[in-house]
Amino acid sequence: MKRKDHFFVWPAVIVFILDQLSKLIILGLVRPHDTLAVVPGFFNIVLARNRGMAFGIMNRSQGHFTSYFLVLATIVAIAILIYWARRQGEERTGVLFGLGLILGGAVGNLIDRVRLGSVIDFLDFYLGRYHWPAFNLADSAITIGTILVAIHMIRPRPYRG
To answer: What is the pTM of this model?
Structure first.
């Protein structure tokens, strides 16, 4: 394995394992619609099943079309991530690390969708009656990875004349 591949593969593997492990623990501890207050007034652990996309978009869709579409879209996104990572140079470790985080999260959520028909979300942040949609570790990795990739793509590269 090339040095640059470590910056892509290992973050993906670690995110995938932590994501699946955390979801397995939550499924064993929390029943649907239960709430475990961790920091009252700010953070709960819940068990939510998201059949849609991020933030519950398309969550209430009926039929299997939405599920098949999201599985196919995720597989295409994974292929694009791998292609993009392969095209990065050795010096692009920040981009590779971000792409690895995104890949690990995408695979984690894909496994849920194929195995369970929905994605397990359990992190519930809120202030008063204002709740952020529940999410999981895979979603967090995808978000952080996207921010890292954006920062490294915007930041000028040093000239290597």
So the answer is: 0.87
